[in-house]
Amino acid sequence: MAEAADELSTPLGQNTAGRTRRVRLPFTAMQALAVLLGLVLVGFAGVALFNDNPLGGEPIARITLRNPPPAAADDKHAPAEPVVKSAAKAPAAAGDAKNDAKTVTIIDGSSGKRQDVVIGAGDPAEKTTDGDAPPLAMTGIDPRLLEKSRYGMIPAVADGLKPFTVYAAEADRAKAARMPVVAIVVAGLGVGAAKTTDAIMKLPPAVTLAFTPYGADPGKLAERARTQRHEILLQIPMEPFDYPDNDPGPQTLLTTLSSEQNLDRLYWHLSRLQGYAGIANFMGARFVATDPVMQPIVREAAKRGLSFFDDGSTPRSVTQSLSAGQSLPFAKADFAIDAVPTSAEIDRALVKLETIAKERGTAVGVASALPVSIERLGAWLKTLDSKGIMLVPLTTAMLKSKSG
């Protein structure tokens, strides 16, 4: 009956015998594509979030290093002559290895830090050893007076010797004790090779040269100064009153730091060059006037057999009394001769220095390495003998003042 009813309800002229029912999906093709794309994005996000790879996305180079096979230790029949020849060729082989060295830059994807790695340049352990070795090639450096710190080699006392006495410039101290003497310190050297070289070459050896720890290679310039028989000092950057608007530079000793922190910074400065007879303040009017922070520095200088030179930047400095308490060789500049850097004012300051030397027996002037200062100093120093005044290194003036 149901089949008969369907036939009766079918419109005339239409045959439904061959029709099939169409299956309809619950989503469209575009919806399926969108879901698939979403799954791919979720997968990438999961890898990025949960995969611990800080160098993700950075190019990676894989290098295979193969150690050469060890020589047979029990080869007793190897002739001695080839071994000698191989040893003779070792320097050449080392030179070839140096030429074949390649530098690869590794970039940390998380921090952006770059690190250069040399490949094929020999044994890294050998380089580390050489880098930590004291700069014994410097002229006249006594290796016994060096002590290793975490920053490099720093001065030390050994076998009854002190850097102050070993590195003091030669002078006729008996003659200096009988007549007025003048000591000149040219400071701020090491930054600016041209002006440093002018001071080294144009001024007589009795002029003491003070180097800052900065510059590309202060040690090389200091070595050149010592080769020309100049006595040298190391200037230690210290906090001025207007710090940080007036900043001496990296690793400055500060009144806000603990004594341990300041000593650690001091060691960094002490390691920058070698062969100095003492240290001096570089700026530092506030620091040298603050007793609690200066005490550890003066004690350390005395412990290491150095001297201390105060450039006279503040009348409130406590360095003289602290140095006396430690029996530390000490001198303080009477004034800066080129505070007004003109020829006329420098000449007036030098005449004033002569007067002080004749009245007190000792006078100390400090100057920068300005061309006008070097020129006026050079001319004035030639006239001292005729005036009955002796030019001496700073260490000689220190010893005369201490004995007087």
UniProtKB/TrEMBL annotation:
Pfam family for this entry, one: Polysacc_deac_2
SUPFAM superfamilies recorded: Glycoside hydrolase/deacetylase (SSF88713)
Membrane-traversing stretches: 29-50
Domain of life per record: Bacteria
Alphabetized UniProt keyword annotations: Membrane, Transmembrane, Transmembrane helix
Official protein name in the record: Divergent polysaccharide deacetylase family protein
Species, as recorded: Bradyrhizobium quebecense
Native organism taxonomy: Bacteria, Pseudomonadati, Pseudomonadota, Alphaproteobacteria, Hyphomicrobiales
